[in-house]
Structures are given as C-alpha cells and as structure tokens.
Amino acid sequence: MTDRTLGTCYYPEHWPEKIWSEDAHRMAEAGLTWVRIGEFAWSRLEPEPGKLEFDWLDRAIGVLADHGLKIILGTPTATPPRWMLDKHPDMLAFDAEGRPRGFGSRRHYCFSHQGYLTECRRITRLLGERYGRDDRIAAWQTDNEYGCHDTTISYSDAARRAFQDWCAQRYQSPQALNRAWGNVFWSMDYDSFDQIGLPNLTVTEVNPAHALAFRRFSSDQVVLFNRAQTEILRDLTDAPLIHNYMGVVLDFDHFHVGADLDVASWDSYPLGFLMDRTPASDAEKAMFLRQGHPDLQAFHHDLYRAVGRGRLWVMEQQPGPVNWAPHNPAPLPGMARLWAWEAFAHGAETVCYFRWRQAPMAQEQYHAGLLRPDSAPAPALAEARQVADEIAAMPDAETAAADVALIFDYASVWAWEVQPQGQDFSYFGLVFAVYKALRGLGLDIDILPPDADPSGYKLVLAPGLATVPEGLTDQITGTALFGPRSGAKTPEMSIPDGLPPGLPGLDARVAYVETLPQGADRPLARGGTFRTWVEEIEGDTEVLETRSDGAPALLRAGNLHYLAGWPDDAAMTRILRDLCHAAGLSTETLPEGLRSRRTPTHRFWFNYGPAPVEVAGQTLPPAGVTWETL
Amino acid sequence: MTDRTLGTCYYPEHWPEKIWSEDAHRMAEAGLTWVRIGEFAWSRLEPEPGKLEFDWLDRAIGVLADHGLKIILGTPTATPPRWMLDKHPDMLAFDAEGRPRGFGSRRHYCFSHQGYLTECRRITRLLGERYGRDDRIAAWQTDNEYGCHDTTISYSDAARRAFQDWCAQRYQSPQALNRAWGNVFWSMDYDSFDQIGLPNLTVTEVNPAHALAFRRFSSDQVVLFNRAQTEILRDLTDAPLIHNYMGVVLDFDHFHVGADLDVASWDSYPLGFLMDRTPASDAEKAMFLRQGHPDLQAFHHDLYRAVGRGRLWVMEQQPGPVNWAPHNPAPLPGMARLWAWEAFAHGAETVCYFRWRQAPMAQEQYHAGLLRPDSAPAPALAEARQVADEIAAMPDAETAAADVALIFDYASVWAWEVQPQGQDFSYFGLVFAVYKALRGLGLDIDILPPDADPSGYKLVLAPGLATVPEGLTDQITGTALFGPRSGAKTPEMSIPDGLPPGLPGLDARVAYVETLPQGADRPLARGGTFRTWVEEIEGDTEVLETRSDGAPALLRAGNLHYLAGWPDDAAMTRILRDLCHAAGLSTETLPEGLRSRRTPTHRFWFNYGPAPVEVAGQTLPPAGVTWETL
Amino acid sequence: MTDRTLGTCYYPEHWPEKIWSEDAHRMAEAGLTWVRIGEFAWSRLEPEPGKLEFDWLDRAIGVLADHGLKIILGTPTATPPRWMLDKHPDMLAFDAEGRPRGFGSRRHYCFSHQGYLTECRRITRLLGERYGRDDRIAAWQTDNEYGCHDTTISYSDAARRAFQDWCAQRYQSPQALNRAWGNVFWSMDYDSFDQIGLPNLTVTEVNPAHALAFRRFSSDQVVLFNRAQTEILRDLTDAPLIHNYMGVVLDFDHFHVGADLDVASWDSYPLGFLMDRTPASDAEKAMFLRQGHPDLQAFHHDLYRAVGRGRLWVMEQQPGPVNWAPHNPAPLPGMARLWAWEAFAHGAETVCYFRWRQAPMAQEQYHAGLLRPDSAPAPALAEARQVADEIAAMPDAETAAADVALIFDYASVWAWEVQPQGQDFSYFGLVFAVYKALRGLGLDIDILPPDADPSGYKLVLAPGLATVPEGLTDQITGTALFGPRSGAKTPEMSIPDGLPPGLPGLDARVAYVETLPQGADRPLARGGTFRTWVEEIEGDTEVLETRSDGAPALLRAGNLHYLAGWPDDAAMTRILRDLCHAAGLSTETLPEGLRSRRTPTHRFWFNYGPAPVEVAGQTLPPAGVTWETL
Ligand SMILES: [Zn+2]
Ligand SMILES: [Zn+2]
Ligand SMILES: [Zn+2]
C-alpha cells in the first residue's frame, strides 16, 4: 500500500546555488517527501542549440536527494527557449483570430508542428538517458499543464495540414466526409482533403460536424505529443510517468492522454478556480471566496482518480493567494490543510504545494509559496507541517469504492461547446450541477469515462452524454439516469435516426428542445423548475414527474430513467434523492459548505462554509477538517 | 385578384430521391401551394467547374409539379462551392478587422468582386435558359438573404478599388470630394482617388462623410449584384422575380434592390428576432418570449409591402424553435397560425414555412420544420393546415389603404450608425418606437420611402429622417410630424446652413443637441420624458408642448409639427394620440399585446399577450387570432 | 506678474477668408487675448511634398494680429497629410492586435519611425524659420495631445527595433537584461537584443519587467519626439513652447516631456471625461452629469502646474456638449464660467475655449464652440465674456503654496497597469481617491513628481508609489503617508529584498497582499473598510488603527505613516482628517459638490453640486462660483 506523502515544486535555477542546501534541509524538516524540478528549465539545460548544461541539474539533484527528498523530474517542453523560434519560426500556435501566439511567456508551441515535436523527443531522450536509471529520480512529469491558457487548439498552417491528414485517415474519401458531415447542406462539399480549412473566421457558424472533428483532432494531437515523450521514457526508466493536468481544462481528452501514463496528477488552485472557471452563482462565489467551491476540488479528485486508473496525485496545491485570477484573496487559515486532506480522502497518494518559495521576479511574483520571497515561512508552511504529522499517523493512501458513478465525457464538452443551442448551456455546468447535488446528499461518487464498465454501481448517471455508447445501458446493473440531452447526437454530430435519446427499452423521443433565458424557467409540478434546457418528450414510457404544464419531466422504464430538462438546484436535489432511494442508497442533507468523503477506514468531513457546523460529535470551524473511524 | 396561398422551403438535394414523392404528396395534403427549392444547391448543380448536373433538379421539379405544387427556383449564389475559391482566391469579403471571411458556412463572397459576379451571371443564365420558360417554375428568387450575417459591408481590396471608382463617379475630382467631405478638417485631403481607403482601422473615428459614402457605396453594390441577375432573368422568363430579405437587416437600401424585382418577400423569425435584434425592454422580451414582439412582424409587412410596390410575401416563416438566437424557445401553440394570418392581414399573398423537414445534419439541426427529422408532423403542420382551410374560405389577398404614413429611410439608418452622438441613439429604434405607439392606438400604417409621394395621407411621420428631400413638405396634404433629428444633415453628412431642421414654413432651429444616459431623462411638462436625445430649439414657431424646464418640446406651423426629443413610450403615445386627433383620426387604446390590422373587408385581431383579452365580442386567448367583417 | 487671459482655438483654413476679419473682431469683442491656430493644417501648408503654401497662414496671422490677438502657432505634426504615407508607408503605429492604425482621422504615426521624425523636424524648422522671430506669434504648441486615442504605444516594426536599441542602452548585455527581468523564470532568456519582441500577442501574460520596460521606452519615445521639435524651435524663437496634454492620458511621463517646455497646458473636457475616464461611482456620474466631476479638473490643474514648473494653461476648455463621449449632455448654464475660474484659482494664466465656431463638417460636428455653425453665439460666449470682465477686475495670475503634497508618478501608472493583481486596482484611481478626500476636507494640494523635493510641506502623501526613490523619506520634513502598495517594486519590477515597503525607520513588511472583489470589503475597527487591496503586515511598528480582524491597518514610526489597504471613501476621509490634525492642518467638511481653492489673496468657491449651498455668507447656486478675500 502506498503511503500518503507531501511534496513541493522547486526551481533550483531560480536561486543561488548556495541556498539549495538550506532549502532542501527545510523541505525535509517540513515533512515533505517529494520535490518536483526542471519543467521550465530548458533555456538553462540547453542555452544554445546543442550546447547542453546538465551539471547544475546534477548538483541540484544531489543536494535534494542528500536530504532524503524524492525527485520528480519534468521534461521542459512547455517552455521552448528563444533560439527554438529561430530554428522553427513556424512552430507557434495561432489563435482563432488568425494571429501567432508569440514568445514571451510559456506554452508557445503548436502541438501539430513536427519540427518542434522532434526537438521535444530529443530533449526528452537526453534527459531520459542521463537520469532514467538514476533512482533519485522517483517520477517523471511530461511537459506542464497541457492545454492551459487555451493552448490545445491551434489554427496554424501546421494544424491545418495535420487536420487534413486526420480527416483523410478518418473518412478515407472526401465524399465520405461530405456525407458524414452533411456538407450538401450549404454547398460545403469538398473535392479533396487539401481543401478543408480550419473552422475559424467563417462568415457565420461552421458546420458543427466540421467543428467537432477539429476538436477531436486537436485532442488527439495532445495525446500524440505526450506519447512521443512517454514512448522514449518507457525505454529508459521504470519510474512512474505523470502529467499535471490543469483544473477545468477540458479541451483534450484526459482519459486518452492518461492511458499512456501511470499516475494522473492535477494542479489545484481552489480560489483562482472559484473566480475564473467554476459554474457557481454570485452568492456561492461570495460565500466561498477564501475557501474555494466545496465541490470543485472533489470533482477533480474523482475525475483524475479515474484518469489515473486509481492513482491520483495533486502535483500543485495552492498554498496562499495566487496571481492570475480576477481577484486574489488569501485562503482562510486552515484551507491549505483542508485541501490536502480532502485530496487524501479522495485517494490521493501525494500532494505537492506549489511552490517552495514565492518568486520575487517575473510573472508569478504575487503567487504565494510555502516560503515568502524573504525565505520566512508563509502561513501554509505550518499547515503543511501539520498535515505531514497527521499523515504520519494515518499513512495509508486508500480509496473506497463508491456506490454512485457519474459519467464524464470530453467529447460531450466539445459537442455542446460547438452547438450549445442556448448560450447558457454548458456540459461541464450540467455535470457539475449533478455532482454538487449528489455531494450535498452525503454520497461518494466515482467518475467514469463513457467507455468504462458501470456494472456494480447502484446508481449511474450520464447527463448530457452526447452519444451513448452502444451497449452502455446493458452494462448498467443498478439504477440509471440519462438526460437531459443524452444520446442527442450521432458520433458525427447529427440528430440520430429515430430521434434522441434512443435508449434501449425506453419508448421516448425528444420531439423538440427549447433553451430558455434566465427568468423564464419552466416550473415542475412537484416543485422547482427546469432552467436553460427543456425537452418535449413523446412516447409510452412511464412518467414519474411532470412539468406544471403537464409535459413529461422524468421518465422511467425499469431501472432506466430519463430527465427531460435541466433542474434548478432544489429540483435536482429532490430528483436525485428520490432516485437514490429507488436505488437503495440512503442520503443525508448536508449543511451548505459541509462535505464528506469516505475511505475504507474513515469518513472525512470538510467545512467549506463560513460558519461552524456540528458534525461527528463536534463543532467543526470554518476551514475545519475532521474524520471518524468507520 | 391574387389568392392567399401557403408554401414551404424544400431541399431535395438533402434527402433520398425515393422520399421526394411522399414529401410532395404530404405538402399538397397540408394545403400548400408553393415550394421553394435550389437556393443552396450550387455544389450539386455544378460539382466541378463547368460540369453541370441539372438532371436531379429536373426530376425534383417533376415530382413536385406532379403534385400540383408551384415552384420558386432560387439562384444558388449565396453558397459558392469550394472550387470557386480556387478560381477566385480573392473573392472573399473582409471584415472590419481586416480578416477574410472564409469558406465553411455561407455568404462567403464580396459584392464587389468582379470575378465572382461573372460566375453568378453564368449560373443564373444557365438556370434561366433551362427553366425560364418552364411554367412549372412560377417564381424566381435571387440569391438568399442579402446582407445576412453582416455581409453587406466588405473591407476587401476589391471593395476598396470599387469604392474609389464610386467616389470618382460621384465627385468627379479629388478636390470636389475633399470639399464635400470637409477633409481640410484634420489634413485628410486626397490628391487622387486611389489614395482613398476604406473607413476601418483608423486611429480614431473617421470622417462621417467618408463613412456614409462607404455605406452608400456598399448598398449600391448589392443593388448592382442583384441587378446582374435580374437583367439576365428578365430576358429568359416572365415569372415574377423575388428576393427574400432578412428581418432587421438594414445595411443596404431595400427600396433600391426592390425596384428591380416584382415582389418583396421577407424571412420572418419572430422569436429569434425578439432575442437578438428587436429594440425592446427586458420586460417586453420576457412577456413576448414565445410570441415575438407584437409590432416587429407588422412593421416588416408594412415595410416590404412598400418595397414590393404592393406585392408582399413571407418567403420564410418560423414554424417552431430556431437554432441561431441566444436562446431558442418554442412558439406558443397557435403562433404559427397567428403569424401567417397577420401577414395576410397586412396584404401578403403568400406565406412559406421554413423549412419542410428539420435537417438532422449541419448548421440548422435545431431549426424546426413542418416535419420533424423523423418525418413525423411537427406542431406547426396542423396550424398550417388550419390556415390553409381558413384562407380557402377567405381567399382574396387584399390591402387596405392606411391613413397614416411613416417614412423609413435606409440612408438615415447609416447616417446615425456612423454618427449616433450618444451610444443609445438608433434610427430603427426611433422609428420603431413611433410605429409601436401608433399600433397601440389601433391604427393601420403604410411605410414609405423618403422619395414617395405622401399626399393623401391624413398623418405623415418622418422621425430621424437625416435629410429631408426637397419638396417633401409641400407634398404632404395632411398633418405632418418631423423630428427629433429630422433634417439634421445635408446629403454629404454636414450640418445644413441655417441649422436643422430647415423645414419650409417652420421658424425653428436646433441650437444644440444633447444625448442622455439611462436615468437622466428630461421631464416634459405634460408628463413623460425625453430620453436619449434632446434638442434645444430657438425660433418663433408656436410651441404646443414644453419640457418641464420650459424649453420647447413640440412645435407647430400649420399642419407641420416638429418634435424636439425622443419621448418615452408614455409620452410618445400621448403626443401621437393628440396629433391623430388634430389630423381627424380616431384612436383606441389597445391592451398590451393586442394588435389589429384592417383589410378592405375585415378587421383582424391578434393577441400577442400572455393573457386572454376581450375583443370583437369574444375572449381571445393568447396566440389567438380573429376577425370581424367591416 | 502674468495677467489672467482667455483665448480660443481657431482654424482659418476651415472658413472662407472673407469671414476671418469678422471672426477676429468678435474674438476681441468677447474679451479674448489668445488664438491658437495651425495645428491640423499640414495638408494646406504643404499640399504636395515640398510644395509649401504659407501665404494663407501669413494672411490669417495678419488679420488676427490686426485685431490685437496674440497667436499660439501649432506644429501640424499630429496630422500628417495623405502623401506622407506614400513616402513612408511604414510610418503607422500598430495596435496591440498587430494591425496598422491607418490614415483617415489623426495621430496616424508611430513615435519610433525615424523617417516621419525627420519630416516633423523639417516642417518644424520651416515654421520656426518663418515665424520664430515674428512677435505676433506669442507662443508655440508642439503637435497636439500626445497619446490621445491610445497613441503612445505602438507595436510596429519601427517600435520593435527602437525598443531593442533602448534595451541595449539600458542593459548593455542580454545577460544583464535576463538577470534584471528574471528571464530564467520560464526559459525566457535572450541571447541577443534583436531577439527581444514587443510584449503583445503572447500566449499568456508577459514578464511584467518586460512590459514595464516597454512602457518606459514608449514614454521615452514621446519625450524624444517632442524634443526634436523643441530643439529646433529653441534656436528660432524666444516665445514660450507649450504642449497641450489631454486629460487622463497617462501613457507617457508628462514631467519628462514638460522638462523641455516652458508651460504645461491641458485640454479640459469635464463632461466627456466624467463619462469615459473618471474613476467615479454611478451615483457620482448621475449627480455630476452636466458639471463634470468636482475633483477631476482641479487634479489636472495641480498636476500640470507641477509639470509646467508653475506655469499652467488650459489650452482647450469645453464650452458646451462634445461629440466623443458615450453620451454628450450640455453643461449646466454657468459651468463654462466656473471651469475657467477654477483654472485661474489653481494658478492658470490662460484659458482657451475650444473651439471658436462649431464645425458643420467632418468628425467634430457635434462639438460645441463659442459660436454655433451659423455663427450665432453659443451659450458659452456670454459666459466667456463675463469671465473676461471678471479677470479684468482681478488680473493677477497667482498661485498659493499648498501645505499638502501628493506625489504622482507615471511609472507607477504603468507598473500597476502591467500587474494590477486584482482587476479593479488602478493607480490613478487610488491617487484620485486620496485627492478627492483631501479636497473634501477643504485643503489645497500640490502635486509633485516622485523626484521633487517635498521638504516644507506639512503633509506628504505617496499612495501606490511603486518604487520609493532613495532618500525621499529623508527629505520629508512634515508628516508622511505611504501605502497601500508603496515601495512594492524595485525599478526592474521585482519584489524588493526584505519585502515592501522598505521605508527607512519603519519596521514593517508586507507578508502578503490580497485583492478583493466588490462586496468583499474587509472592515476596519474604527469604521469603514478596506476595499480592492489589502496587505498583511508584520513588524514592530506602532499600530494606529487595525482592521476588525485585528490586523494592522495604519502604522506609524515618527512622522512616517503606512496605510495597509485601500480605504473606502468614508474611511479615507477619516484617516486623512486624523493625519491632517497630526500634521497641524485644520480641516473642514465640505458639502458634496462644493470645492474650494485659495490664491495668495482669495479663497474661491465652486458649486459642482445639483443644489444651492450656503458658503461665504451667500447662497451659491448650482454651477456657481464665488470668492472671498483672504
Ligand atoms: Zn540539510
Ligand atoms: Zn402523391
Ligand atoms: Zn475688426
């Protein structure tokens, strides 16, 4: 069994060599096990093309390892040096407006550029050859935060040519592509693959089939880019290979990238994410300003536990204020501990705080670390030390099996971004609304990719799943909930023959859909409303619940349920509670902000709320975490 | 006398040939008379340059005509095939940001590109030669929705060169142009016409005379593009020539385009328009969410009846939810009937529902049809059938002469877009506010171009008419209302000598104008306010009404009135009611959402409101339409 | 001692020569002393390259001077003629999106373009040679409103090359630049200066040191551009050299430009500025809609008095509605007088109304003048005449020394624009909030550049001063207030060693900062809140005031104070009042909208508010100005 461990992210190249040893000493003293290095250091590893300077890295590794720290070594491919642009002037990604995304920050490359890919293979091989069998290097990280800063998608020439090839592979003939996409619609037929452009800068909306194909292609390019590194490292090391996914970056399929890796790690910035990427109301944003949204971290832990096929890390954990959100408050005292324990409760093996010391220069000067720029301890250091002591007393990294499975599908993210039909419709928002309601009922959840086997789960939910894989409903042994908008598309982004949702055994068809602006919710007979998205259903299936106007709202055929709209929070909770009871699951009603997660041995409690709550026989203060033995 | 008829829009190229016959059979069964085809089919009519495939079209025409349907054949020039771009790589329009507007949707051409214009002439001639004398083709449509997706204006090189020629024609010498535009102002003088650029991407605002000239030019290019097709078709067919104008597309002069055509048709999407292009309050948008704005359709009917010199069609009628607005609710049951009857009441000969069957592929998958994608009837089919029965009993397409004339001038749209002076000022918004108030008073309205003869009307209104044509006031035999902002500009976009409005017989000058933000309305002595736009008037004319601060608000000289600001809705209604009474017109006060229109034989009533209303001795439910014999 | 005088801005080239004499006559009659001409006339002075036509200017000067008017002659370099583009096609500035900012309005040049700079030297020399010793030309204006329309910053190739040279001069080696900027951070190291790009269109945020260097460079280019003209004119004339700065244009260092000039003048458009560039609440914007913000003009007078080293003019004074703000109301009657008197009270020598006559053509048709387009008097003419009479009775342009000094630093504007950390943080907003509170306390204020000697002032304030100059605190003899965010950066935009603020004698360090969204203010123990920006302080300095959570809010060491957050208006006033009392300054509490300023002989009162106020023994109406003898 793996031990729970802590770590941090360190940049020896940023600091005078004379303080490395003191830093390492203090890391060990703080109870840290891991230190990640190297992922932005290409200009110092190879200051000129082919002129390699690894000796400083050797010395840094030595100092760190001498203090008992295990090293995660990053490939530096997220930050190509300036000279790379001279070698490969066309390596940049292009934005949707047709402009190159230039040098001067990071992630300035197009995933489709073959010249840059070759350079990445080269530096990866050099690092692998030098450090692959060095047992001080206990793990490897590929690149850094694929897709961060909207970098998955590029409209470069390299991307266009690669997309044409991708289309040729997928469709084999322009005529087949024309049929698949329905290009006859507006005389959009192609005669050859090299006529196909990227779906930007068109007069009005592009064919959604074209757009979705491009999104699939763009995701595949990330998979291939990552695989180019893992294929090399696999031959050269036995250490686990990891990527650090960025929170709420959904432009590529993390399950597909993760299939080539050993551990899924993610970068958790609860306060920044609350501000800039969480589907939350203004009231929630005010209430959780200094805690983060109570469900966003848990969602990602559950998601990446699936991506990592059970192996989950947090590679970067926010320790204090960050620099990049619209506003950047400090976490409540205790949150740096709470977030770590929440990760462990969800099965994480390791939590690394980002970064060791706040940098006084360059872009992230206002990003807190465990140390301040003057090397004094920042508030999070003591919290990390406390967690280190606590995990020493409860070392086993374990995951409890959940009764509830929630399907999350990256292709559905893209499908509904391409074609929201109403400007507020968001697949992530819908799935997150379901997840939030389930958590408020006190449940543990496993997140599954759409091609996983859901058998064994008492409750399986697949809201908004654009295309329902053949055979999925057969595999479900428990109660299932599909809809709204599940099964709404063929894999080529058309409306299926026979109309959605096309679920075996469920005699129901979506006659038409409506999207609604705020304030025009459609009331439900049993309370609450459908908001944003409403479907008109016909068919002979049992109706469990109706709208106030009598139209079907919730349908059933055996264990299979279909929800014909997006319920508001109150209705979502009611509907899911009933469904849980039907599935034989007991539920609770947790106070707002209180959340829990069970391991095989304990139930953990986390108070994200602004007020103390009574739980587990005690008063849990804001930012408090506690646990009960099961 | 022409009969009222229904029709639909059909795309045989989208469907297997084997279902054409069944489709045609069902169209006839639904009571439809017309079917429009062909307007997006260029890639199937000419799959390679010069390789013509008209046989499928022959067969489609045959099947449809065999079921008694009359065919409207569209020229396919709104959707040039992909190979056209290889022949004419510079044919694309450019947006104001300087980027080409590429292939992948529709309307991807610049009106000024001579190469593409030649191609359009060629395909039009080919179609005209084949089908012009075929009496199964009972009408022709040129292109599709000119100007839709902001396509009137192009900043391409082709447009720049054509604009230089246009300027040379209009001004004859650079010196004359410099004088006309006042280019001395900021040393903007030109030495030659080829120095003149397009008015985009300048450091700060361009000379409004330059901008207005470019808007005029851009409109003229649409006229010439359309005329290139009508000139060919006139020689080859006797069937009426029609274009389907898109609602609230104001970038070219529809009267000028319409002068080359026989019928003006328009595409009516009440729910989409309410959401994305109607000047309506949030309260109105909420109240009419599933009905559309009660005055927007009527306005367009009255407008296009003028454009068509009495001959009005609705070429595309929304039958259910559409796909393109920010939110897309379903119409209330009954609206598909109401909208059709409202068109007939305003003099329409034909209403075609768009489209026959909802397409499961490409851009408009969520756009309803009369049939669902699974060929089952959509809700609107029964409503269309009801209308078919009703018009069979009341077949005559007739128009009553109105007592009230409202002048609508495209050049004023452009003038005030170029120079709004306050960000909320909108000519269309102002004219629509007048129209709405008149309709609420129970009046019928004729819309006139600024060069029409307004004699005979009891009341003539010309709000915001930038340049008052010489002699217009002499032609008015009834009561007239000008202002605000009427006569404010010379044709070259200067302030006239002697100051606005410069109305013969009215001793009044606009000393200065003010534009006001929301919440800073200027109160009127008799109630209500001026909002958005206020004028300070001097002169010796009779003052009928003042602002609360004593300044003149409404002036009179004989039958000529001038309004010195933009009244809020309440004041607008009061002022217009008084004016009607002065003009000998009786008025009513219709409940919100109830609207009427008279034909020579009937008065029709339409309930756009969310509640039943008592009218014509009955309770008219929401979405209800009824009529009384006059 | 200089006399207070009035003037106007006139464009003889816009009007028929036959009316020049009448215009001049009326100017003199209105009591005007000055007339500014020539600054947009390049195309008429040099209609073709090298073909000079100065005779019309000679005649205009003659007519004006014959009526006793003193002439300010502008160099016409803000409006290069169209032929200049043919000579220097690459002279245009480029915007941050990478697009050239083209011909068709004004200010269409890049400050870094050497070819255009040479042309500007040439035309300046030609004008200087012809008119430099002509004593009818009593002052010179260089160019017009540097930086207006966001023209300071250009992303052209010329700018890039010049920036590379600037970097080479400043840093001497790429390695030194890499160290100064901390480029190691994300492998952003440069090997040579010609690799350095401009900080636009990067993938994510650029290094703030890079961005700040570019802002400094961009400011320096304006200084050099202006100096190219002053160096020539100095040899050719003894008349004072002036530039007319535009209000709230902060992209270049006005102190640096002003060092080469004799007088600082600015262009004052109170109503336009209120709408589009004043940090004011919605309530303030509604209350001062027709007056302008009561502190914005005063702030600029105080600022430019410093820029002009005591010599202040208003070169353009709004007389009525303007054309360029989002909404353009008319000033309350009396404001054209009030604004002029406020300028004089703050030490202005001259106030010129812009423009003499409203132009009926081109961009500024809706911009009021002293005359209407029909040459009738606009409302402001009588107010100007009244001011002329009043200053004849009180002619001496004098400035009283203030007790309070407020430091204003352009580099801090740029630093905090580059790195606001929270989206609401604005240096100008912070300084203006301090200024507004001081003025509400009835105080007079001097604004100082950061390198001025503040000794002798009873109170010195330096909020948000990014880098505190070495020795500044030693020079302060009175009470001082720094913070929030003062001393937060090294000159190279890093966090200083030892942490901010680093004030000698003050044992306080900013452990971390927080930025807060609206509604999440942090309460203060004595009332009010910190908003937007909050600092966590550690150290042993005396704490004068705390937040409600006990954290230090206001610190003191001797006369040196440090404020650890941005107070809301109420707390700001309370804190500054207490500080004034500690500094031996008495304060008042002026009613909202009432403001004052003292000269050596008088105290002037200005009522910006919408209601009458009792002051100086009288009832001062809205837009009223009065004075008491001291
Ligand atoms: Zn040690
Ligand atoms: Zn049949
Ligand atoms: Zn005279």
From TrEMBL, chains A, B, C:
It catalyses: Hydrolysis of terminal non-reducing beta-D-galactose residues in beta-D-galactosides. One of its GO terms (cellular component) is beta-galactosidase complex. It comes from the Bacteria. This is Beta-galactosidase. Its EC number is 3.2.1.23. The active site is at E145, E316. InterPro entries: Beta_galactosidase_Trimer, Class_I_gatase-like, GH, Glyco_hydro_42, Glyco_hydro_42_N. Substrate binds at R106, N144, W324. Belongs to the glycosyl hydrolase 42 family. Residues 402-585 form the Beta-galactosidase trimerisation domain. It comes from Palleronia caenipelagi. GO terms for molecular function: beta-galactosidase activity; metal ion binding. Zn(2+) binds at C110. Residues 9-393 form the Glycoside hydrolase family 42 N-terminal domain. GO terms for biological process: carbohydrate metabolic process. Keywords: Glycosidase, Hydrolase, Metal-binding, Zinc.
